[in-house]
Structure formats: structure tokens, C-alpha cells
Design brief:
The protein is 4% helix and 50% strand. It has two helices and 61 strands. A hairpin with a 2-residue loop joins β1 and β2.
């Protein structure tokens, strides 16, 4: 084994400086950047005498790319890059090169470390481009390849518009279901178009079936109201479509109901197959608990919804790619919003009101921008929600930004949580050749018969500790990975293969009168930054045996404000590795808790719950402010390689 020198060299603008090492081990290294250096991108050289390694700090780490059309972008639209160190200065730029070699420079709209937008010129030609990013700091070596992007034509504006008027005077016996469906069907036969509803009340009894290529649009959401007749047997969904449809600028009222708008699901398999689904400027007011009811009637109505949909009916239930939900105000009896396997989706500027035993859900995502929303518990049994792997092998690339989560008192009160129990494999690998790993059948887990594509392989012990790879395919006892790990591990390395949850950016949110914003189970490269927690449980990351060993690697808590306590306990930033009986491996690795501000009994807590086999390794707690409480920093058992430095603690009985 080579040994690192005591002082690695840090280079900025060509001048090398030695860095002070805080801690080192065969698997981890912590060192200080020289204080006199300016911020920006650094080149770091680790010198081991007979070998050296050079890498960069603060260069762009692009998690995913998204355009104004989801997978693609349009001339005059925008390109959004999310990850770490996206645009450190206003000089950040993306250069895109066409297949003919023509290069176009895209200046950033505003500096943004986490998710930066780059407007596209109106004159940009349609086609495929290669993109590169420079974050505004460093030399030519700090450019990063972003991959391929598609520029496609804007949506057609010459499709027919059909206008429909409400009945006057309004009458409770009217039923507009047939004529609205007939009008949309006629548009579909003409190749698509918009059904425009003039101001008024429209009465309905059945499902509005929105064909491919059709938009249902009201004159304005305060002028057009669709009211469904109350019945003991409401339709499965009040509105339904599969692909290429939109609903905009109208209000939906309903009493007893199941799903309100359901879109993107195959009618036979029920799998999410939708594309290009937009719900914009829609107000939903749906309550199954209206009118005078006997004492047992509310429970009967709740059970009717749960019997129909075990996890609860939804105001918006949408699945597939390029889903846009914008400027809506949704009140549902149970869940306001559920996205199923959304790819390149955007949920922005909405108010989501959660009903009885309800929660919001983002299941199996791959690229979701969830920002500037307000999520409110409208019932004392309303919970929060979060991101999960229900029905899939991974959940990745989610930006949760500038949202407000409030008044959540039901179930576990989780304002935002990750979820997805079980795993595929645990133990040593029988053989590793190139990017293929042979497993011992004894170690197969609870999800062994499920789809493995996209699952995460984490090295928890031995050579290669901290390494992460993704499964591309699995056949029998052979798993094919996205990278060659043969030289990085050996026969004694212990791995866990689990549903992957990676690249969550939880930034600039407010959590008020709610439970925790947390990672529960597997996590990889998540960031919690600049959030505010008031009378809430705080920010937490848990690694545990969640029906399978589920690790957390490389989580950061940066610049958050925590003030408590919540209903039953003090708020906290918590790093918890719940070591379990018989396990000898690590569960949590590489956590940074920096520049957070905690007040009113809030504290920082790190606990591995073990006397013998540490569950947590390599934690840095620095430059935090903690005050006005009983304990500032609480370190439990089973924690290795802990660095606590340069924290400001005041008016705390036990620092």
C-alpha cells in the first residue's frame, strides 16, 4: 500500500500551495484548502512518492440536463443543467456544436450553483448537438462534456380551435359529458386541436376522454367551472388521456370521487407510457366529505376510496415523459399529486393541498424539476410525501427547490422523504471480470425477481470501500455493471445491491409545522442546502436494514437554518446509521455538515448505534452555529473518522 504525503499540493491559477491534512486512511482523506486562496476551481495533486493522482475540486458535476420540451428544447426555449457547481459566476457558458460543426455559445441567465438555465436563441437550427459546460471558473481543463441534446421545432400553432358554450340558464339536470367528448373526438379525427370552453358552468356525470393531440382549454379558471354530479359510484377518473394532451385554465369541482385527472397510462397494462402531458392553470376542488353526514359516514367514504386505490385517490395522477404541471391549485380528498416513473418532468408554481390520509408522491423518477410549489396539509390526518422507488429499480435526478411544505400532522408527518424497501443482493462477489460480477445465490435479496436495471452496487467493506456502480442487466447470478470494477475490489470486498436513489438536490425550501425532510434508506450524492425548518423535525439521513442493507454515501448539509422544537422533540440535523445484529459492514460514508445555523434546542446528531462494528465513517462537522439549547453536537456510538472543527456554539448547556 502506498502512503500519502503529509501535504498534498493545491493549484489555483498555476501557483501550487501545500494543504494541511486533517485526517487520512486507506479509503478517505480530509484536508484544508489554504485560506489565502480565492474561491473557484482547484487542481489537487496527491503525492504518494512512487505515484501521484491529480483531480479537480469545484468543477462542474452535471447530474442531468433538461429542456423546455423535457428530453429536448426548442429555439427560443431553454436548457437547464442541474448538479453541483453548475454556474459559479455570471461568465458561465454552455457551448453546443451541431453535427455540421457549427458552434453556438449560450450564456447563463444567472449564476446558480445547483441548477442553471441557459436561454436558447430564436434562430437556433433544429437538430442534434453536443454540449459542453464551463462554470465560469478555472482554465480550459475545467470544461465538462454535457452530452447530446436535441433541438426540435416548437409545437404547432395552426391546429383547429373548436369553441363550446355552456347552457344558459344553468340547470342541475344538464349533462355536458357527451357533447364535450364528441367535440374532442371530432378534433382528434382532424389531427388534433383545441376545444375552447367559453365562460360558464358545465355539468358532467362521466369521464372526459381526452384523445391524443387534443387540448381542453377554458377561457379562464375563474370563468369556466366543470361540476361533476355527486354519486355513490363516481367514474375511475373524471378526466383521462394517454399521450400528447393538455388541460388548462379551468376549475373542476367534485364531491365523491376517485382520481380527478389521470394521464399517461396504458389502458391494458396500466404502465406509464405517456408523453407530452400538460396541466396548467387548473383549479381542483374535490371533497368526498361534503354535506351533512352521520358519524360513520366519513370513514365509509374514505374506505370506498382506499378500496378503489389502496394508496389513495389522487387529484393529478400522471405518468411518463415530459410532464408539465404549472400554476395549478389542487385540493383532493386524499392525495393532490402523484407522478409515476416521470422522465424529464417539471412541476412548478402550484399549490398542492393534501386531504385525509393523503400524501404527494414522485415514484421512480429520472429527471424532475419540482420548484416554487406550496404543499399544505388540509386535514389533520394529511401527511407529507416524497420520492420513492415503488415499482422500479431506481429514482434519480430530482431538484426540490424553493418550495414551502407546511401543516403536516398525519402519519409520520414527513415533509419530504425517500422510500423503497428491500434489495437485490448482499455479500461478497464470487468473481469480477471487467464490468461483470458473479454473485453467490445465498446472498440474493427480497427483490431478486424484480427488474435490476439501474440498481446501485455499493461497496460497504474491504478494498474499494465507497465505490458505487449501476447494474445494467442481470441474468441468473451474473450482474453486468456500467463500469469496470475488477481492479478496484477483491474477493473480500462486501457489497450491497439495492434500488438506487441518487442525485437529489433539496435546495432553498421552507419546512414549517411538519416532520423531517430526510433520506430514509439508500442515498447517493444527495444535497440539502439553504433550507429553513421551523417547528419541524429538521433534516435527516438514515441508513439501515430496510428489509436489506441500504447505505448512504456522500450526503451534504450546507447552509440550512433549523429552529425548533417540533411537537414532540427537538429539531436536528441527524446522520444515523442504524447498525443491525450480525452486520459487520459500514452503512454511511462521507457526510458533510457545514455552515448550518441551529437555534431553539436544535442540534447536530451523528449516531452509528454500535459498540463493535461502526456504521458511520468520515463525517465532517464544521463552521456551524448552534445556540440556545441543551446539546449542540451529539455523537453516538459506532462513528469513525469524525472531524468536528471551527463551530460556533453559544448558550448551550452541553456543547
Amino acid at each position: 500500500m502506498t502512503t500519502l504525503s503529509n501535504q498534498p499540493d493545491i493549484t489555483v491559477k498555476g501557483v501550487a500551495e501545500s494543504a494541511q491534512i486533517l485526517a487520512k486512511s486507506p479509503a478517505t482523506l480530509s484536508f484544508l484548502l489554504p485560506a489565502k486562496m480565492a474561491s473557484g476551481v482547484f487542481s489537487v495533486t496527491l503525492d504518494a512518492g512512487d505515484a501521484s493522482l491529480t483531480f479537480q475540486l469545484n468543477a462542474p458535476d452535471v447530474y442531468w440536463t433538461q429542456g423546455d420540451k423535457g428530453f429536448s428544447a426548442t429555439p427560443g426555449g431553454w436548457l437547464r443543467l442541474s448538479g453541483r457547481n453548475m454556474a459559479l459566476t455570471e461568465n458561465a457558458i454552455v457551448k453546443i456544436t451541431s453535427s455540421e460543426g457549427k458552434e453556438t455559445a449560450l450564456p447563463v441567465s444567472a449564476p446558480d450553483s445547483w441548477s442553471a438555465a441557459f436561454p436558447l436563441p430564436e434562430s437556433l437550427a433544429i437538430g442534434s448537438y453536443r454540449a459542453r459546460l464551463w462554470n465560469g471558473s478555472g482554465d480550459a481543463s475545467t470544461w465538462r462534456d454535457v452530452g447530446s441534446i436535441e433541438i426540435e421545432a416548437r409545437s404547432r400553432t395552426d391546429l383547429p380551435v373548436m369553441k363550446l358554450y355552456s347552457n344558459h340558464p344553468d340547470n342541475l339536470d344538464h349533462d355536458d359529458t357527451g357533447r364535450i367528448n364528441a367535440s374532442m373526438g371530432a378534433l382528434a379525427r382532424r389531427g388534433g386541436g383545441t376545444l375552447f370552453l367559453h365562460a360558464g358552468i358545465y355539468r358532467l356525470t362521466g369521464t372526459l376522454q381526452i384523445p391524443d393531440g387534443v387540448a381542453l382549454k377554458g377561457e379562464a379558471n375563474d370563468l369556466v367551472t366543470l361540476i361533476w354530479k355527486d354519486t355513490e359510484n363516481p367514474p375511475d377518473a373524471l378526466m383521462e388521456g394517454i399521450r400528447n394532451f393538455s388541460v388548462a385554465d379551468l376549475t373542476i369541482n367534485a364531491e365523491r370521487h376517485f382520481h380527478i385527472i389521470r394521464g399517461g397510462f396504458d389502458p391494458v397494462s396500466a404502465e406509464p407510457v405517456g408523453t407530452n402531458i400538460t396541466v396548467k392553470g387548473v383549479i381542483i376542488r374535490a371533497s368526498s366529505f361534503l354535506r351533512h353526514m352521520k358519524n360513520d359516514e366519513p370513514l365509509k367514504r374514505l374506505e370506498a376510496m382506499q378500496n378503489k386505490v389502496r394508496t389513495g385517490v389522487a387529484g393529478l395522477l400522471l405518468g411518463g415523459s415530459n410532464i408539465v404541471v404549472e400554476g395549478c391549485d389542487v385540493l383532493s380528498s386524499m392525495r393532490p399529486l402523484v407522478l409515476v416513473k416521470p422522465v424529464a418532468a417539471r412541476v412548478a408554481g402550484n399549490t398542492l393541498r393534501t386531504g385525509r390520509r393523503g400524501w404527494y408522491g414522485i415514484s421512480g423518477p429520472d429527471g424532475v424539476i419540482f420548484e416554487n410549489n406550496r404543499i399544505i396539509g388540509n386535514d389533520l390526518q394529511a401527511s407529507g410525501g416524497g420520492i420513492n422507488t415503488f415499482g422500479g429499480s431506481f429514482a434519480r435526478n430530482v431538484l426540490v427547490r424553493n418550495n414551502r411544505f407546511e401543516t403536516m400532522y398525519g402519519w409520520d408527518r414527513e415533509a419530504m422523504t425517500s422510500d423503497g424497501a428491500g434489495g437485490y443482493y448482499r455479500g461478497r462477489l464470487v468473481d469480477v471480470r471487467d464490468a461483470s460480477a458473479t454473485m453467490d445465490p445465498v446472498g440474493l435479496g427480497t427483490l431478486q425477481e424484480k427488474d435490476w436495471k439501474g440498481a446501485g452496487l455499493f461497496v460497504l467493506k474491504g478494498r474499494g470501500l465507497g465505490l458505487v456502480a449501476r447494474v445494467t442487466t442481470r441474468t441468473g447470478n451474473l450482474a453486468v455493471l456500467d463500469r469496470d470494477i475488477a481492479m478496484a475490489i477483491d474477493k473480500d470486498s462486501v457489497v450491497s445491491i439495492v434500488p438506487m436513489q441518487e442525485n437529489y438536490l433539496v435546495v432553498g425550501n421552507t419546512f414549517e409545522d411538519a416532520g423531517a425532510a430526510q433520506v430514509f434508506g439508500t442515498g447517493y450524492k444527495h444535497v440539502f442546502a439553504d433550507n429553513k425548518s421551523r417547528r419541524s423535525d429538521g433534516l435527516k439521513v438514515f441508513s439501515l436494514d430496510y428489509r436489506h442493507p441500504q447505505p448512504n454515501f456522500y450526503t451534504q448539509f450546507l447552509g440550512n437554518e433549523i429552529a425548533g422544537p417540533t411537537l414532540r422533540r427537538a429539531a436536528e440535523i441527524a446522520v444515523e446509521g442504524r447498525q443491525f445484529e450480525g452486520n459487520e459492514t459500514l452503512l454511511t460514508l462521507g457526510v458533510v455538515v457545514r455552515e448550518n445555523r441551529l437555534r431553539s434546542a436544535a442540534m447536530i446528531r451523528v449516531d452509528g448505534r454500535s459498540d463493535n462494528d461502526p456504521a458511520i465513517r468520515n463525517v465532517l462537522i464544521e463552521q456551524n452555529e448552534v445556540g440556545f439549547g441543551a446539546t449542540a453536537i451529539n455523537i453516538g456510538k459506532g462513528v469513525e473518522e469524525l472531524i468536528v472543527r471551527d463551530n460556533k456554539i453559544e448558550d448551550v448547556r452541553l456543547p
